[in-house]
Give the backbone structure.
Amino acid sequence: MTRRIRYYGPAVAVFVGVLGLWELAVRALGIQQFLLPPPSSIGSAFAEHFDELITVGRNTLVEAVGGLLIGGVTALVVAFATARWATASRALLPFAIAANSVPIIAFAPIMNNWFGILNPLSKMMVVAVLVFFPIMINTLRGLTLVDQASLELMRSYAANELAIFAKVRVPNALPYIFTAFKVSATLSLIGAIVAEYFGGSRSALGQFIITEAAFFRFANAWAAIVVASVVSIAFFLIIVAIERVAIPWHSSARIADSS
């Protein structure tokens, strides 16, 4: 317990200090609410609209999780095929790179047109495109950057390519996969909110922020941003917890436990 307090204490102290300085600066300098509301106003707005914020946060989280699953599964399939067969590598890698080059701002209206502006699937597909490349390229690196000594040892036991893939390449790729999913967890929420800016249900974070800002209720908009940050952090921590269970032998899990 004492070790955890020493580990997390500085971060908590900085967080509280920043909030305190923020509050003092806004009041001392007379900064207008539409420029930067003080944390006290944001907290009051959060308490006042708590139920609504929880609802819109949950709906956006569903879109983010759905998109992460669609993009993640597709990326894993492409990465495994690319690492296993050279023909698949030549055929699929150009499409993966092309998907990464598509700007989300241009892609979101197309998805709304394809799947319907009120359909959560349109937002999920935007998220899927956004997270596809990071997961695919990290998984591919983990499958291909394998210690040659391990490969030679498996071949000395007359192991076939499928056994090498399952017992050497996949375990080696797991830390890369979880790293990609941790990065993509935050990206998925950003992608869902950006997609909502281009239209969708009003019971979602993106539309809530736009509406509240349009009516100059900036404290409410900032409260929604706080919800988005908390949901993103929680999503990240869930993946970290799954990583500890799935690969307890990896150094990242041991470092996290020792803290």
Summary: The chain has two domains: 1-31, 37-252. Residues 1-31 form one domain.
